[in-house]
Amino acid sequence: TLTGGHKAFLNISRPLLLDGIPKVLPPHRVVLELGAEIEADPAVVEACQALKAAGYALALDDFTLSERTADLV
User: Fold this and answer.
1) pTM of the model
2) Short-list 36, 40, 38, 61, CA closest to 49
3) What is the pLDDT of residues 8-32, one digit of tens each?
4) Sheet bearing 8-12, strands edge to edge
């Protein structure tokens, strides 16, 4: 109702991402947006892979690929 049938883009924090809270949201109705402050460490990459496998769309906000993050993705 709030989005008029369109997908909602929701910013999520690292704790929400790692605790699996976004899974209570319907994957076909939301895009989970990860802020630039979330470091792409192995735990974050694993959580993103699990969400993607569950059908969620992910968006990166102000993401910069560094040599360190390139090894994780």
Assistant:
1) 0.79
2) 40
3) 999 999 999 999 887 788 999 999 9
4) 8-12, 30-34, 57-60
